[in-house]
Amino acid sequence: MSISDIKELVVDFDLDYLPGISYLPFHAHIPVIRKVSISNQTDKSLTELTLTIVPSDDFSSSFKTDIANLNPGETMEVKDLNLKLKGNFFATLTERMRGAWTVQLANQGQLLVEKEFDLELLAFDQWLGEGLIPELLTGFVLPNIPELIPIVKKGAEYLKSWTDSSAFNDYQSKNPNRVKAQIGAIYAAIKNLNIVYQTIPASFGAQGQRIRLADQVLSQKLGNCLDLSLLFASALENIGLNPILVLIDGHAFVGCWLVEDTFPDSVNDDPSLLTKRMASGIHEILMLEATCLCEGNPASFDSAIERSRGHFLDLRKFNYFIDVKRARFSGIYPLPQRKFNSGEFELVDDSSFFTQAGEPIAPEKLEQLAPLLHSHDKPVFGKQQLWERKLLDLSLRNNLLNLRLTRSSIQFIDVPIGELEDSLYQGEEFQILHKPKDWENTLRDEGIYQAYSSSNPLKDLVLKEFSQKRLRAYISEEELNSRLTFLFRSARHSLEENGANTLYLAIGLLRWYESPKSEKARFAPIILVPVDLIRKSVKVGYIIKGREEDAVLNITLLEKLRQDFGLTITGLDPLPLDDSGVDVNAVFHIIRQAVMNMPRWDVEEQFFLGTFSFNKFILWNDIHSHTDKLKESPIVEGLLEGQLKESLQILDLENLDLHYKPSDILLPIPADSSQMEAVCAAVEGNSFILHGPPGTGKSQTITNIIANALYRGKRVLFVAEKMAALAVVYSRLQSIGLDPFCLELHSNKSRKAEILSQLKSATEVRRRKPGFDFDAESARLDSLKADLDSVYQKLHQETFHGISLFEIFSKYIQHEGFGDSITIPDQLVSELEKANFPLFDDFLTQLAKAAELAADPSPDHPFFGVNLKTYSLELREKIQDLVITFIQQRSEYIASFEAIIRELGISIDLKKTDKKNLENIVGLLLEMPPIPDQLFLESHPQKLADELLPLIQIAQANLDMEENIRKEYEPSILSIDAESLHRQWKIKEQEWFLPRFFGLRKIKMLVQSYLSHKAKLESKDVVELLSGIGEFQVRKKALENNESNLKNWGVFSALRNNDSLAQLDQILQNLPILHRSIETIAGSASQILEFKKKVIEINNSNSTKWKSLCRDLLKISKKEQSARESLENEMGTEITFLWNPNAESGLLQAKGWRDHIENLKEWHAWTLVKTNSKTFHLENEIQSLEKQGIVSASLKGSILKATYRKMAMEYLRAHPDLGVFSGEAFESRIHEFRKLNSQFAKLTKEMLFIQLAESIPDFSREGATSSETGILQRAIRNNGRGLSIRKLFEQIPNLLPRISPCMLMSPISVAQYLDIHKEPFDLLIFDEASQMPTSEAVGAMARAKQLIIVGDPKQMPPTNFFSSVHVDEEDSNEDLESILDDCDALSVPSKQLKWHYRSKHESLIAFSNSKYYENSLFTFPSPDDRDTKVKFVKLNGVYDRGKTRQNLIEAKAVVDEVVRRIQVPLEKRRSVGVVTFSSVQQTLIEDLLMERFKQNPQLEEMALSFDEPYFIKNLENVQGDERDVILFSICYGPDENGNVALNFGPLNRDGGWRRLNVAVSRSRYEMIIYSSLTADQIDLNRSKAEGIAGIKAFLAFAEKGKAYLPHGKSSNGIYSSVGIAKSIADFLISNGYQVELGVGSSGFKIDLGIIHPDDPGKYLLGILIDNKSHESSKSSIDRLLVQEGVLNVLGWKILKVWSLDWWESKAKEGTRLLKRIEEISNQPELVEPPMDEISPEPLSGETDDIDTIEEIESNSKNYMKASLMKVNPTSSDDFLSYTYTQRQLNQIKEIVTVEGPILKNLLGKRLLEAWDINRMGGRIQKRFDELLQMAEVTKTREENGEECFWNSLEDAGNYKDYRVLDPDGYKRSIEEIPMVELINGLEAVLQQLISLPQEDLIREGAKEFGFARTGNQVKERITQAIQMMLRNNRAVEVDGRIKMN
Length: 1941
Fold this sequence. Notes:
By secondary structure, this protein is an alpha/beta fold.
């Protein structure tokens, strides 16, 4: 572009400058030209420009700068021109003159534009007035001119004469009088100069004027008010004092500080700032009239001071005043002095205000700090540190990371912050001042002020004020006051509401950047010093003072650095310390080293005052400040330490019904057994986890737990993170009438009015008595329940056999088809127990199998009877050889045997015994001598032998006698009369000697005469011989008597021969044997006779052949026997023998063994198993069956059938009540129980209310203002004005638990409102604990004794999907996801809710139950269970991956369905919810639906009219919501190229499966899945995420049905189709019905479902039998209430079949069943009622109204005075007379009866009144004591020694009342009231007013007893009663207040 072209362009510029200048503004650093603005008004860029500014008269330096480029339309400002005025020029300038600035713009040396700007050049001593900067006036105060030296010296003389010292020691004395004296001395010295006054110009002040400088005034002795004021100020500043200049309309005067101080600003227009400091008694400032210094004015120094006060009378004339010292701090120094040198003027600056170069000094030493050793290891954080860090807010919203100047923060001008921290540590206070008005500093882009440079003149001011304990802020006075007030109120509010200090002085800032590319710096505080902001006074304003708390490091900053930048800073825990708190420099040093390699990062040594908090600061502070308190909770301590010190116990009972009555466990909301078990565990004080899967009734259970705890007088804290969870529980508490006793405080920002409204509702509760006997109703219900349970228990309890009667029935019916061929022994049934029943079953199985392998044992079996000891192949071969040998031997034997038989003519069948007998016959015949025919043919040989054998013995004896006699005697001796001789011998032996001698000798000689040889017999030989001969003769006689018979038998002759006798004896011995053998073979008598004849014939023939046959038979028999015995020994059985003409059995048996020897092993196995039957006492029965022929297929079944029948019959005999059981009667009893239970539930609610109302004081009475009752009443009346919620709670610590024993809060409101040091709650319940981080829960846990953690670990963890807070995964101490997870890992015991009620169709929960709960949930099938309510809609949608990440087709389909459902008729509507798998898809659906609403506004109105509004949510926020119909949009799927990326957002994360579990369990009636993806498209080889596997399984289930359900470990999906249910099913099938067994897919099933004949997708009805409900049920309420009730609500028609009835009479029950089915079939279909949620007991039986409830009476009674009949005694002696004793005793008893308890003194007074005696003297007292002993009334002695008399001892022990004025107005004195009544009355006061200071309790107690004034007596006696209460622990004193113990 050419120069000519440029000249044609339009370029303009402007100059911002001072129109008039003098040297003083420049000297005060005020720029003469502020800026030049250059505008390019063309459409082209200008380049290579040069800007030049030249002064017209060389009064200044020039300025030149280059401008590279100026864009079209751009305006550029050039600042910092750095023009310097020339002092020499202005020193010579005595009048004003005109000048100009010439401004030129050139391009490459060619001038483009030139302009001149005119200005006035003013004289050197010209003051510009207030128009520019008023404080420039102080530049004319010249303290160091030499002309002032004489004045100072003269002043010193005056000072010496007035005081003891001439020294001008400024403010060192700290004495204002000394300062005043110094000012007065200067005043006197100047006044002596006789300066003449000159009037000031009219334009003074506004336009300025020429100033006579101090040296001119002193030389010219001339000056006006301003000149004199400046002179006086110069002299004062010279001696080190701080002068003040005051300007009013047309006048100026001067003043001085009497104390070492300055004003915050150089210039102030508020005269009160002076007048207040001038006031008497303050004397901080002194003002004086300067014109009094002039000649002719006789005013003294004090007069000059007084005259100055007159200038303040009319404040309208006041303009401003200037603090000279303060102006110096602003850089306004005295004008240089003009010196004339070499013909020229030069300016000499006052060197005292500038640092002068002096002698070189040594450099200061560098501060040496120890090098910091940084650890590269990751820090290991303890649990508490982790919790604290998890509560930190790491977003830029947090001013702990991103500090900005807002109304909650104040930045201070820099001071040495290390010294500041030390001062605060030492308790020093600092005043806060605004910024200097004459100073500007621009705010940086980052939102904070830049620190000033060390050369800034402000530095001296700030440091000076810092030494005076003042801190300067960067903001104006107005803004500062506003912020300080806000901070003051915020800090106070935080302390009151949260109990936490949030006000800190932030020392040091870390300047950091979010990324290397970030342009904007962030500032984070480093050290936080806790401070208090205190409003001292109006004058002082606000001060800050350090709190008695330690400074802390900004751990939020450290965590941010660690997480986001990988900077782990060590050495700061604990903070480095010096002698006064924190070593600030060391901290900065550590931080700087840590960020040394971070570009642009650094520590800025600035400081801020502010409130530093964040969302969860209250929770953080709660943990951080209460470490020791946290550890008092065993579980919290366990979490901190990693394990529990002691394991926690938990209730574990098999049958809850046996341990708890209805009145023990209150169930205002019906509960199933798993819920009841949780309630019982809570009642027992157990701390535990309660797992509550979806729809299992967590809120009902929590409500019942709370109700039971409150009923037992416990305090309950319920904590939930979400308001929705809290609202559900609160609404349930409200539904049972407990809401007045519950205080809901979920938000930490709860409105005070709402809380007071809740408390007010509690105060309106009135106490009352129940109109029913709760325990009696409980006992009635319990009794009926016990009766019902008894039948059920007897039916299902394990018998001693280990199985129940029901199982016995089922087992029997299962084997009903088997035969009844066996009888079970009693011993088997009695010994069959659970332990050995499996053994029995195993035995039967083995038995049946062995029988099968042995080819069904029977008598026809080849090996029947065989019983081997063992088996081996070797043995089998041995047996085979033995069998062959035996066959050979038996065959030979049979041949010989048959030959004998032929000889004998036998043709009958012969058995083994016949064989043996035949062998006996043959053997005997061979051995015996010839048998006489008569003997052989005798039919009774045994009888014959019995007769003949004794005779043979006699004959043998006689033959032996004869033989012996012949040896010694003659045979004739046997004929003597031996018996007579023997008798004579005996007689002679009895005679005297001679006769005896001769008599015996005679007999002896006679006997001796028969001797065959000569010998001498001894007497004994004679006796023996005679005795033997006598016996011989007797035997001989016997033979002679039987001679004829012997002859008849042909044996008589044989009696005379020994050989014959021996043969005869042999014959007679064997003859019976021979006869029996023949008899056995022959049989009948005739056959025996024929047989014998045949034998006689053969035997008499003496045939050699016969004898040979006999000998052969016997010989072969031995061989055969040997072979047989060998074989029998091995086979373990006898070999049979049965011969007939055709065959012999033994031989056939052996041949059978031979032919089937291969099967011997199987037979042996059978015998082994059969042998074991002895264990079960079945050996006889098995043998019996074997003999009949065993059928192996039915063997086990037959035995089991017989066994079960035997067991059942025995059990029924033991329980006869079961024998008369009737199902119809039992159902009637169940119906009665349900009705009673419903009634009792109402009574339970009423009893709960009555019990809790008992603790609430009577608020209808006004309480004492100091009492807790009065405090609350006042707060309610004035809406808590001036009282925070936390403060209110602190003031009513004893009342609050009584009126609100249950508090429902969030973790943050717990930390805010509940003081952790107060009495802990008895019970803490967490709800939705799976979503509650441990860090948020532990604070609440430290406030309770017992803990119940309710939640589901398989549902959502604490949501942090979009949070940046994270902790290293490698950290071994890493906190788990939630308090539920942490406590689970800590082995805190747990319970689980098991019955699912939400889903009205089982398919809706089937996937979740199967996949995630291992089928542990018991769900209810619906009548249409054969169908599914989970529908899969396949769409050809496209997932817009990489762009919008949405699926438009799916979204449209979902919206269409939502719109369709919104438009359905009202009666068919169901609520709708939409769940998406991503937030962007959620947004798309919301937008599309809004578009539809815009198109059709009526549609939106319809949508809003639903009882439950629709929702559209994603996986992250749907927990806690449920709707009738849930629509899913999977969103993810094939992209436009058909590729499927397995990125499913949150599902890919750890725990993503939990989100899926939550999502798929939200529906009540129907679930529709809209998906562009199928299960087959998900390849699990590409992802190991559980969430991905879950979505694949879910899609497969939705697409293909139940068959594709994943099966858990303990799947309950298999239903046993045997037993009673199968029997009933078979019966129904036989009658034409289609039946399905075990309807349902969980552990609970309907036993039989009859399929609807007209609608196969539904069931006509269901049949329940009285089987065991389910294994884990610990209460019968499941069976009696839950199951059938829920099924009825679901639409089932249910029939009951009772096993006892079916067992007894299947036919009868079957007929009844068919009839009921027919009746139900004919009933019309019921319309399904709408339901919100199925209750465990959806029954609403009729209930009787509760009796009228009476108000509770007070313990306060009227005092009744006894009315005694007056006695008219003649004198007092009558009272002493014993004549009236009985009357007196009666009077005493009457008084005690009416007025008891009564003190002794009052009792005596009453008695004497009746006797008209005024006082009790000594004699009367003695008589009175005597009467008391005689009256025998009950007496007690109080602690204070007082005697009190009662009606009875029982009254004395149970007295709770107290008495006030009687109706007639009689009033007892305080001394006459028994101490027990006083204490009862005081307790009533405390019961009402909760707690009181002692003085107020005395006053209220006196008022209660009717004493209007509390005199000394009243006060002393009530004090005595209070002390007794305290000593006896009936009351306690806490914090100066007395309350009930």
